[in-house]
Design goal:
The chain is an all-beta fold. Helix content is 0%, strand content 59%.
Length: 203
């Protein structure tokens, strides 16, 4: 990437209920807030990508996201939807291949005290993809254990993934276990972050 090419990002969010005021998006407020937000974003950098001919070209991405975290009695329903469109993006296991296409992510969880079962769907469709064979697809089920809320928790997920160029008979299984610890060292009022959002989409 040339030294003279700045990367420009922006994000605009509308909060229908309570605002998210922290430095990080919490992912869930475990019943302490009612949140419904809608966001749009963009990310661009000149001469930072590759076009379909393998030549250096401008990179850009635009996105939309929606997030719901709503208490229902003592329980909480949490859901999010993310959409992103990429042009001349470069990444993944092959840094010499242009990635043009669009991606979707949907997640729905239901928190019942310390336990939160969830389901999720993720897809990426390159430009010109034909049918499901040309897409990268994931179906996910999981369980979050909020033992000490955001201070200490465990997250277990199982995904059935079909990679680009393969059929469902060739799908692979993915199992992910994540543990989070948060230590309050300086600012006792700072809310523990659950996840750091990506550059473009939120939550």
């Amino acid at each position: 990437v040339p030294d003279h090419a700045p990367r420009i990002t922006s994000r605009l969010v509308y909060n229908a209920f309570e605002p998210e005021t922290g430095y990080f998006y919490a992912g869930t407020y475990l019943g302490k807030k009612k949140v419904l937000s809608f966001g749009v974003c963009m990310d661009a950098q000149a001469d930072a990508g590759l076009n379909e001919n393998g030549q250096v070209d401008d990179y850009s991405a635009v996105g939309f996201d929606a997030f719901l975290d709503y208490p229902i009695g003592k329980n909480v329903i949490t859901s999010q939807f993310n959409y992103a469109k990429y042009e001349n993006s470069v990444g993944g296991s092959n840094a010499d291949v242009s990635i043009n296409g669009e991606g979707y992510f949907f997640e729905l969880g239901y928190n019942m005290g310390q336990f939160e079962p969830l389901v999720a769907y993720e897809s990426y469709e390159p430009d010109g993809a034909s049918g499901t064979v040309g897409k990268d697809l994931r179906y996910i089920v999981g369980l979050n254990y909020w033992m000490k809320k955001h201070v200490f928790n465990l997250k277990l997920q199982y995904a059935n993934r079909k990679s680009i160029g393969k059929v469902w008979d060739e799908a692979s299984a993915e199992i992910t276990l994540q543990a989070q610890f948060f230590f309050k060292a300086v600012d006792q009022k700072m809310a523990p972050p659950e996840d750091v959002s990506t550059t473009c989409t939120g939550n």
